[in-house]
Amino acid sequence: MKIYSVTLIRQGWRFDVQAGQSILLAAQEAGIRINSSCRNGSCRTCFCQLQQGVARHLIEWPSLSREEKDDAYILPCVATAESDLVILTDYAFKL
Ligand code: FES
To answer: Residue ranges of the 2Fe-2S ferredoxin-type domain (predicted)?
Structure first.
């Protein structure tokens, strides 16, 4: 199974995510909480911007506009990594 590195650039924290695993869950397993609520891609509480790398949403219709997708915004509760990632969020905390 492939494992990718995720870096939260603003906090300087890094954790691993398995291919197919949600980024939010991987962060949680690493002791990092990214703000979340619904965890199904609808509420947008976990809204982050990808700075580097390739992520894929696990659901067909995540709650993002076309413009947000074009600007590399992701919902990490329903997104997984397809390469090492660098993510920008203001709302991550150590558990
Ligand atoms: S937690 Fe609701 S969209 Fe991610």
So the answer is: 4-93
- In the chain, alpha helices (H): 23-29, 66-70
For 58-72, write each residue's pLDDT tens digit.
999 999 999 999 999
Burial code of 9-27, b = ≥16 C-beta within 10 A, e = fewer? eeeebebebeeebbbbbbb
Q: Output Rg (C-alpha) for the chain, integer angstroms.
A: 12
The highest-level CATH class for domain 3-94 is alpha beta
- Separation of first and last alpha carbons in the chain: 26
Q: What is the DSSP-derived secondary structure letter of residue 35? A: P
Q: 35 is written with which tokens?
A: 């703000």
Is the pLDDT reported for residue 1 higher than 90?
no
User: How far from chain centre, in Å, is Cα 27?
Assistant: 8
Give the count of alpha carbons within 13 A of 68, CB side only. 12
